[in-house]
């Protein structure tokens, strides 16, 4: 059926709970089968659930702009909006919300500093961090592995890249959580104001990182970008600060989620965990399968710049679009037995969890490296690791970022 103009309301959308990510996958399957593109009255977005449709939209940045990627789902309350405007936060984006030519210019410069070579140099430090954190709780026989490993390790890694001192990690991470909730959550006006205040502090901190590098050059991402700027590359102080603002959030929040989701799925699917304990060569593909099956980011956004037809559905110009990668990743048309978790899947790396097209995630190699190192050390040191029985898994209320808030595990000492 073609839903050419207006805001259609389909039966599938009645079951759509965009802010509840506890277990959205049965609904995703229903949507793919019954109404793969539907309109959500609650969000005011067209929701796209099939792999090929999502990939098509990701690949056409001219018709489907990313300029709304960082826009809050819910209208910002006047007081919170005024506070953010005064703090210079309106219209702020690193790369995900930019389009060419600015996107092309900035990404080319950032790629010179934020690259695989720099990530590989970090591997010994990542491994040292992982070993130290695991040894801190190894003798206890049980732990909340989100709190004692997955929460902090990615933060320390990305903050090493950006030159953030260890003693400031917890503060910056709390500001980043405010960004997640204000942009992708469903908050009251009072909560919006509180998180807006934190985001202004977060933005001021990132501007300070740039200012400090101008006074004292450093070997880190903002230091490199300030140096490139001095050498004549076209990138402003605000753009450098925006990259820090974006990287400090994206570089640890999503990797924390990858570790939490990965450990949980591997322990639920016990044979997969045992396979990794005996064969570390399987770990890289297992990481890809975790990203496919239980992605850190289940959905992302675009806006149509003109009327367009996708999957037989006409989407009017100016429409907001929610791309549900968490659904596309399980599409049977792309992944055989897509609802099954299979760490030996041949095409696991074809998932959409890191995006596609010109906005493919720059930090993907770093996130995968961190997950690989953590799984290598966990399977080596705690092969009897298992989920503590009878626990309930909670997931933060938002549209896009999915990971267990806590993950209680135990092992033989």
UniProtKB/TrEMBL annotation:
Matching InterPro entries: Cyt_P450, Cyt_P450_B, Cyt_P450_sf
SUPFAM superfamilies, alphabetized: Cytochrome P450 (SSF48264)
Xref: CDD domains: CYP130-like
Family label: Belongs to the cytochrome P450 family.
Protein name per the record: Cytochrome P450
Organism: Emticicia oligotrophica (strain DSM 17448 / CIP 109782 / MTCC 6937 / GPTSA100-15)
Organism ancestry: Bacteria, Pseudomonadati, Bacteroidota, Cytophagia, Cytophagales
